[in-house]
Structure formats: C-alpha cells, structure tokens
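Good morning,

Both structures are done.
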Amino acid sequence: MPSPFILSGCSGGGKSSILNELKDRGFTVVPEAGRRVVADALQTNSAALPWIDPQAFCCACCDLHMQDLAKLPDQDSRIFLDRSLVDLVAYLAMKRITVPDNLRAALRAVSYSKIVFLTPPWQEIFVNDSERKASFEEATLEYEHLLSSYQSIGYQVTLLPRTSITERTDMLLNELDQVDA
C-alpha cells in the first residue's frame, strides 16, 4: 500500500473543501482528528480543547490519528489525510509547549508520503465556528509553523494557490500524476 498523502495548511484555508472534492472523485480521505476531538470534548465537557489544554488536545488527536491510520484500507489507490502528526508538533511549537514523548514516538512510527500539500492563509474564505476559534492572524502564524515544520524534516511541500476548489484539486492530482509518470 502506498503511503498516504497529507493535505495541511492553516485553519480556514480551504483544506476541507479540497478533501471533499477528492472524496467526490472517488479517493479515500481521512478526516482531521482535531475537529473530531474538539466536537467530542465539547459534547463531553472534556478539557482536551486547544484553548483549554493544548497538550491534552494534541495527545487525543495523536491517539485518534493513529487509530485512523490503523484502519486504512489496503489499497493501491491514493489516500489523502486531512493533517498529520507533524501538524500537532507544529502546533505545540507555536504554543511553545513541549512535545510529549508519545507524540514523538508516534511520529517516528508513521509512514507518510514525502509530498505534502499546504493551503495558505486566505482571508476571503476564512470563517470561525464552534470548533475553530482562532483568529485569522493566529491561522497565519499556524501556517508559518506548519510550513517550517514540514520543510525542516524533509517533506517536499507544494503550496496550493488561492483558486477554485476544482483548480486546486486538479493541480494536486496533476502533480502526483507527474511524480508517478
């Protein structure tokens, strides 16, 4: 089975829309652990929220992400992940919080494709909701940490332009087709 591809970037940059388009085109897509952890924490009154206990939030995300990876279908077609463990490390670095040992160990154990796609900050499409409380400025800082983190550990980062969902998705797939050729 080929390693899954990561689509990451700042909150509100259009990742989910691109991943929905990939899913509509028949690809396997793994949803972001963070949004599911936040939704569960809000429902259960857990402190594992990024604005209450960032480290507990990241540990819960790590656990859920690892469960997701363990359930990936054994297939030859491309699989796309909404974020990765690298995002958690970048988030903790941004918050100046020590990365827990279990997250470091999990990151060493996973195998992602070395090609990563990032969505840059895009104020015109940025919105807040019950699971995304960060400001656009915080999202921009998040993006800078993500870009730096992925590049510093050797990932080939492709920035997706601020264009339509279809154009962004086509660009992503075209780049992967060129790598496969």
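Second structure follows.
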Amino acid sequence: MATTESIQKAYIDHVLTEGSEPRSVYVFAKNNDMSEEEFYRFFGSFEAVEQNIWAELARTTITQIKTQEVWPQYTAREKALSFFYSFFELLKGSRSFAVYSLKKHDRVLASPRVLDTLKVVFEGFAEEILNEGLDSGELTDRKFFSKRYKDGLWMQFGFVLRFWITDNSAGFEKTDEAIEKGVNVTFDLFQRSPIDNLLDYGKFLAKNGNLKEKLGF
C-alpha cells in the first residue's frame, strides 16, 4: 500500500537515478506497483511531492530542536541559529536530492516554487521566535518594520541554501560560517541600533518644537 513516505522515497530514487522526473504519474505509479488513484490520494503532482519533501525537512528540524533541554532558555537569536545549523546538518543526508531540486530553478530570481510549503513552515516558526524576542525586549519593536522581520530571516535562509549548494569545503564548514555571520548580522538589524537613537531624538525634537525658543537660540 502506498504511503506519503513510500511515494517520496520512490520519487527521490527515480530523479537521482534518471536525472529527471518521471514521464507521467501513470508510468511512475506502474513502476512502483500502485495505481494513479493511490498517487493522487497523497499528491496532486510531482511538484507537490518535492514541496512536501522540503517541508518535511523543516518540520523534522523544528521538532528536533524543540526537544533540547536548553530550548526554553534560548534567546530568539539562539533559536534561529539552532534551526539553521540543525536544518543544514539534516540536509546533508539529502544533498543529492537538494542539488537536483534546486538546480532546476537556477535561473529563478524569486524563491523556487518547490520551497513554497517549506516557506510556510519556516515563517510560522520564525514568527513564533521573533514574537518571543519582541515580547522579551531582545528585539526592537519598530512600527511597520517588525512584521517584516520574518522576511529578513527567510531571505537569509535562501542565501545560505544557495551558498550550501555550491559549498565544496570539508564538512561544509564555510556554510557554518555563513550561517553564523548571516544570522548574527540579521539579528543585529532587528535589535536597537544608532539609527533608533537618531529616530528617538528626532521624535523628541518634533514633540518639543519650541525648545529653541526656551533655550534662547
């Protein structure tokens, strides 16, 4: 009997062996002792199979990191770093598939559609830890911009993913470095900066427009 896992495994085996997706669902189903009806019970297309594979990697990562004893004590920054490091560690076991899947979209400037479901999972996780950071005061609550923090994290994720695909360093140590530097820079932008001080000063001057007169300037 076909299952989500068996279909995904058979699909990965096919694309890595043949270098392309199956000619049709009919052929794929026949070669894997299932009916078309069984396939469509789980997925609407081969693209949907790939989307679910990517999303499952993210879900598995989130489940794993949240079981760590230190998880409740982590800051939002540390939780983001934990996700990035753990996700790419897990992805090593599926590198051939990841390279195949993303190489098909090499010339796509926007996020590839195969990552659409992963993006939903990622943004849900990102909003959760970012809201914790805003509530604790770790992150600066900026009007209009705070809601876009998750977009900044997603852009950083996409950058690291592309970097990892072409990383030839031993143990992908360059990717680890890219994660550390990239996530830390991103969170530095989420926290209070000299620009915030300047904006606060501007607000102060705006509210106290007659200050010059009082001081005799």
